[in-house]
Each structure stands twice: as C-alpha cells, then as structure tokens.
Amino acid sequence: MVMGYFSKSPITSSIDGLNMLTQRTHLITNIKTQMISKILLTLALVFVLGSAITHVHGATQGSSPSVIGAPDQQFPVVTIHSTDNVTRGQTGAFVLNVNPQILLATTFVNFSVSGTAIPGVDYAQLGSPAFIGQSGFGVLLVKTLPDPRASFFLRAYSVVITLEPGLGYAVGEPSSAQMFIKP
C-alpha cells in the first residue's frame, strides 16, 4: 500500500484518537473539579456572611443592642480579655473568643482603641477588624515601642480595646479589656 504525503497509518490515527480522548477526559475532569471548588467556595461564603449560622446558644437581635443583622436571629457572642500588663519593649496580647465556634468559617470583629498610651509612640498601631479563626480564638498583639519621653518621666500608659458591633456576631461581656504598658 502506497501512502500519500499527508496520509497517516492506521496505528498513528488510533494513537491520535486516543490522545484526543485522553485530552477530553482531562478537560471534563478539570471542569468537574472547578465546579466542585466553586460550590465549596459558595458554601464557605454563606457561612462567613452569616446567613447559615447554626441556631445554638447565643445572643439575639432583641436581647443585645450590640448586634447588626436580622431580627431574632441568634449570633455567636464575642468577648475579649487582656493576658496581662506588659513591660515596655515587650509584646502584650488581647485575646478574643467567639462562642459558639463557627464551623468552617472565620469571623472578623470590629474594635476601637483608646487609653492613655499613644499609637505610634507607645505601641505599634493596631488595625480593625480583628480576625478570629476556626478555633474560636483571635489575638491582638500589642508591640510596645521604646519610650521617646525623657527617662526621668517614668509612667505606665493604658491601652483599652473595645469590641464594636458587626455583621454575624454579637458583642458579649466583657466587651472591653485594658492593659498597661509599664516602664
């Protein structure tokens, strides 16, 4: 059998056909994987946005003035405490707790900072919101800075964190915590 310049042997044609079938199979598998990923991402966003929060023990819109959300929906409750006072040059911490934990989701909690300590002078600036992971705990680290004031003016300065209302959570008690930056 004489083959033309552009014709392929039956074996080459079969191999090409198998290669095309394999490529189509990989394409279909990739599409299925992408669809599953999008579905999982959508479900995760539903949990994060609070529209599918499990109705278990927590505050409700009617019982807590510190909630933003649908009336009578139960929300996880966020509280805060300070680990202790901190010596200048060290790092202190505030611990946030959400109860009950939100499975497969994280929470971002709004807060404000006050006290006698000055951000950028006595400690590194803190940015709101704070992140609470799936463990149900979050940490705000307060990195103290060297005292730019004269060393003869030794004094402790306070840092106060106050939780603020936000989407998908209620502010519980204690809603604020204080630590002192000691000389």
List its traits.
alpha+beta, four-stranded mixed β-sheet, Immunoglobulin-like, 183 residues, elongated, 31% strand, 21% helix, 11 strands, five-stranded mixed β-sheet, 2 domains
Description:
- The protein is α+β, with helices and mostly antiparallel strands and 183 residues long.
- It has two domains: 7-48; 59-182, CalX-beta domain (Immunoglobulin-like, Sandwich), CATH 2.60.40.
- It contains one helix and eleven strands.
- It has one helix at residues 10-48, and strands at 59-60, 74-75, 77-82, 86-87, 91-99, 107-114, 130-132, 137-143, 157-164, 170-171, 176-182.
- The protein has a five-stranded mixed beta sheet, with no helix packed on it. It has a four-stranded mixed beta sheet with strand order 8-5-3-10, with no helix packed on it. Strands 1-2 form a two-stranded antiparallel ribbon.
- The radius of gyration is 28 Å and the shape is elongated.
- The model is unreliable at 41-65 (pLDDT under 50).
